[in-house]
Amino acid sequence: MAPADSKDWLFAAVALTSAMTTTPMAASASDQAGVVTGVLASTQANPADQTNQVSVVLGDVVRVGASFRTGPEGVIHILFLDQSSITIGPDSVLSVDQFTHDPQSRSGQIGLMLSAGSVRVVGGLNSKTNPTRIRTSDATVEILGGITMVQSTPTQTTATFLFGQQMSVSGSNGSTQSVVRPGFSVSTNNGGPTSPQRIPPQQLTQISSRFEANPGPGNTGSPVSTPGPTTPLIATSDRGSNQPASSPSAIANDRLSSSTSTLVGSTISSTRSDSIGTTERQTLATTVRTQTVQVSS
């Protein structure tokens, strides 16, 4: 899956400008949240008419109130205006309930509703000061400056912390569990959250794999190249960029070096280190880096 890099951001800006004048979903600029930068086998509903499902295509403007649905092979990658990004996994339903961003203060709010399935969230500028919030049927997950995967069923929510400052999970009974160590998860079951549990590397890899595009025989999606950036990704931690970083080995391709996206066909290479503040060094940890994207013409 493609990272939320600078040239990707430039591509998103062009797509946003174009879609404002061409799509029937266009509305005031204030409700713009981001742009679709990768997609396979997925649909979205117009915020003004949730019964009208249309196919999601590369470059679609994402607006507050829009809802997205993926099929068994479906994957959607969305880049927000603050350089946050999300990847919606297969068989999922997610809506963008809230998005604000002030370029001057470099802050704002992101609120998502995951009704079913899974989503991977990569924090941007907003999440450095205000946590990104994901609501599910029985929990609320908040991510501060990091990367988290959330899975939701009608009776259970599981959130896995991969990287960053902090993840918190609040259950329907009002209690909250916080996680600051990568590779730990918290679950709920129509009640309060469990204590954080370490996830084995093999299980982390299995969970992460659902966010990578693997077109089946009936899937007509194809890789789409996106431009490479001239500058590295923003850091999602408050520590200096010259300090070493840690993350689980199964971390999303959004932050891994030397990985190839099957959805957008981008080759990622490392340019500098990022870092996180953790209280414990993990055996599953590897170096997390910001990246550039190199694509063939």
Describe the structure.
The protein contains two helices and 17 strands. With 297 residues, the protein is mainly beta. It has a domain of 204 residues: Jelly Rolls (Sandwich). The strands form three sheets. Strands 1, 2, 3, 4, 5, 6, 7, 8, 9, 10, 11, 12 and 13 form a 13-stranded mixed β-sheet that branches. The chain has a two-stranded antiparallel sheet with strand order 14-16. A hairpin with a 4-residue loop joins strand 6 and strand 7.
* Structure classification: mainly beta
- The helix fraction, in percent, is under 10%
Which spans of ≥5 residues are poorly predicted at pLDDT below 50?
1-28, 215-297
* Beta strand count: 17
Largest sheet: 13 strands, mixed
List keywords for this structure.
297 residues; mainly beta; Jelly Rolls; 13-stranded mixed beta sheet; two-stranded antiparallel sheet; 9% helix; disordered N terminus
SSE map:
Blueprint: H1 6-22, E1 32-46, E2 49-55, E3 61-63, E4 67-80, E5 85-88, E6 93-102, E7 107-122, E8 132-135, E9 139-152, E10 157-171, E11 176-179, E12 184-188, E13 197-198, H2 201-209, E14 247-248, E15 267-273, E16 285-286, E17 289-294
Parallel strand pairs: 7-8
Antiparallel strand pairs: 1-2, 1-3, 1-4, 4-5, 4-6, 5-7, 6-7, 7-9, 8-9, 9-10, 10-11, 10-12, 12-13, 14-16, 15-17
